[in-house]
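Protein in question passed on here:
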Amino acid sequence: MHSVTVPTPPQAPAAPPQQRERMGGKIVVLVIVLLLLLVAGGYALAHQIAGDKVPRGTTVSGVDIGGLTRADAIAELEDAFGSRAAEPIRVEVADSAAGSETRGADVRPDEIGLAIDYAATVDAAGAGDSWSPGRQWDYFTGGDDIEAIVDVDETLLSERLAELTEGLGVPPQDGQITFEDGRVDVVDPVPGEAVDIDAAADAITAAFLGDEDSAELTVTSAQPDIDEDDVQEALDGFANPAMSASVTLVFGKSEVRLQPKQYAGALSMVPSDGELVPEVDAKRITKLVKGATSSGEPVDATVELVDGKPKVIPAKPGVEFEPEDVVEVFTGLLAAPEGERTGEVEATVREADFTTKDAKALGIKRKISEFTTYYPYAEYRNVNIGRAAELIDGTILKPGETFSLNETVGERTAENGFTIGYVISNGVLVKDYGGGVSQMATTTFNAMFFAGLEDIEHKPHSFYIDRYPEGREATVAWPTVDLRFRNDTDYGVLIHATVTPGTYSSQGVVNVQMFSTKVWDIESETSGRYNYRAPSTRYLQTPDCEPFTGYSGFDVDVTRIFRKHGESEIDHTEKFHTAYTAADSVVCGPPPGQGN
C-alpha cells in the first residue's frame, strides 16, 4: 500500500507586538473623543440654560432675583426699591450729652443722593454670560443673600444732618493755619460732638433697604478731621518754611524779591482728605510781581522822598510773562531752605537804562539845603505857585545836568494848569497867565544858592519886592527869562517843592528843599544898599492900568561863601551884584493939566 501524505494548510503569520499596541491606542482615543463630545454637548447645554442669569436662590436685600436674566433682575430691583427714593424716612437724633433731648425730621432718600446702583448690584450677585466652569457651577448650585450696592452723597447728607443737629452737642473744630503780616498763626483743633456721617449713612441705608420708616442716630464724641498731628505736619512741611525768608524771582538780569510780609496774604492752608494743603492766590502773586516790573516799557530807577527821607525806587524791567509760570516757580520756592529760595522765571525781559545800582550811586542821602518864602493871599497865587511846585517837585539832577525852570514848568497857559494874575512887565504890573510863579523861582534860587550849586542864569526882578531877600531873588517869564543852574557836584540832587495855600487870615508858604550828599557849607553876606534912585510917576490911560505907589531903586551885593563840608577854612567866594530900578508910581489917567 502506498501511503498518502496530506499537506497541512498554511497559517497567517502572527502580528508583531508594536502593531497591536497602535491599534489599541486608536480605540482609546476614539472612546475619549466620544466622551468629550458628550460632555461638551452637556456643557453647552448648561451654558445655554444659565446664560446671563443670576444664580438660583440669590436675594438682594430680601428681594429674590435668582434665576432671572441680568435685565430682568435689574428691572425687579428697580420695581422693588425705585419708589422708595421719594418716600421720607423719619430720622431721629438724640444728644447723648443732653440726656433726653431728641430731634427728628423727615429725610427723603433722593434728597441726600441715596440711590441703588442696580447694574453693579446684579453683577455682584453673579449675573453675566460666561463660559467659566465656576460661573456654571454657581448658577446651578445656588446664590447668596447679598446687600444692594448703595451710593450716598456725603456732602448732601452732611448738610441735612447739620440742619437737623444744629444746637445739639458742640461740633469739633479743625485745626487751622493762617498767614498774616509775615507771620504764621495757628488755631488749635478742639474735639467735639457730632453725628458720625458714616454711621448715619449706614442707618438711613438700612432703613431704606429694609422698608423701614425711621432711623435712629446719636450725637456722640467726635474728633476733628484736622488734628494736632496734621497741624504740626503742615507747619513743618510748608507754613514755617514759607515765612522763613524772602523769595526771589529772576527775570533776565533783574530780580524781584518778595518778602513774607508782602505775600503772606496770598497764602492759605485748606483741609483736604484729612490734612492741610497749601494754596496760593495766583492773582495776588501776579499783582505783586507786576507791581515790581513793567508790563510795557522798562521803568528807570529813581529816588523819591518817603516819610521825609530819600529812598531809592528800584528800576522796573519791561517783562512779559505767563502768570502760571510765576506762580509755579514762586510756589516751588516757598518750602525751600534759606539760600535756595531763588528761581528763574521764563519771560521776555527789557532792562531799564537807569538801573537801581545807578540810582544808589547818585548818593542822594540827606537834605543839604532848604528855603522858605511867604506871600500875601491871592487865589491866583495859590493856583499858579502851587502848579509850579507840582511840576518841579521830584526833579532829579544827575551830576553835570542843568535845571531850567521854564523847561520844567513849561509855558504858563490854562491848558497847563495856570490862571491869570499880576506880573511885572516893563516896570509896571499887568495881568497875564502865571502871575506869582516868580515866587517859586526865588525860593528855588535860594535853595540852589545854599546847596552850593553853580548859577548859570538868573534875573532879579527889575524893582525890589520886599518879601524876597534883597540880591537873592529871581524872576521868570516865558520863554525869554529863565532860572537855570547846574549840578556841578559828583552826586545827584533831588528837588522837593511844596506850597501851603494862603487864606484870608494866613499867608501862603513856599518851601523848596534839596537832597544829596553834602559837599559845601554855604554862608551868605549882604552889603548895605547903595546908589539909590528915586522913582518917577507914569500916567497911563490904557484899559488894563493898575495904580501903584512907587519907591526908590538901589544897588546891593551878595557874597556866597563856600567852605568844604565840615571845614572852617573858606574855599572860595562868589559875588552877586543886583541893581534895582526905582519902582515908578502909576497914575491911571492923563497927566495934570491934560484932563477934560
